Amino acid sequence: MNDKERLTVGALVTLLLFLAPGYLLHVSPRFAGSLGGGMLGIAGASLLVLLLVYPLVKHVNWLNVRVTRHLPLRSLLAFHVYAGVVGPVLGILHSGHNYQSPLGVALVLTMLVVVLSGFVGRYYLAYLSAGVRQQEGTLATLREAYNRIASALAGREAIPSGLVGKVVGTRANIPILPLVDAIAELEYAIGAKERIKRVLGRWMVVHVTASIVMYFLLALHIWSGLYYGLRWLP
Questions:
Q1: In percent, how much of the chain has pLDDT > 90?
Q2: What is the average pLDDT score of the chain?
Q3: Mean pLDDT, to the nearest integer, of 56-72?
Q4: How does DSSP assign the chain, residue by residue?
């Protein structure tokens, strides 16, 4: 994972979230059945189906051995991530924001759940973990400073020159209370992030469940389009 990938995927997810409620500004009832709308739909559905390549290669041993000889799993994951956002974007454009069909609405909602749960698992939880590690390092420094100052105040050792100033931005003769406040605030912040991580840690269950529902709805959507016929031109 790198910053460029995270920023690019974040921008695509943001675009998707802005496109989804686009029916408030624009509705094209006949676009989905037009040539352009049909091509967007086919492209989006193809990308959604190709998303299955990564989990299959990852979890099926014989497939993993054969495919990873030529294509690293990391490259397949990158494709999985990008296609997992671009496919739903094309699906939204294909709809023309004509959310009249319950099947179509359900498909759009499940695509959003799949994308958001995947984004949470791939990027947001990693961001939270990095923030927690950084705060835990700062907290350890603050606690060490507190112990040294508390020992000095108890007369067991001298306060190292500039210790308090380096940690809390004050001079060594400032009371210990600001340091205690800083420790308490960090402990609260870390605890809050850990609670969020525990809640979002179920992202894989949500992601897989929503994906199964999405593919079922996608199959029904494709079947209904073929069954009732395609309107290629207005």
A1: 38
A2: 84
A3: 90
A4: --HHHHHHHHHHHHHHHHHGGGGGT---TTTTTSHHHHHHHHHHHHHHHHTTHHHHHHH-HHHHHHHTTTS-HHHHHHHHHHHHHHHHHHHHHHHTT-TT-HHHHHHHHHHHHHHHHHHIIIIIHHHHHHHHHHHHHHHHHHHHHHHHHHHHHTTSSPPPTTHHHHHHSS-TTS-SHHHHHHHHHHHHHHHHHHHHHHHHTTHHHHHHHHHHHHHHHHHHHHHHHHHH------
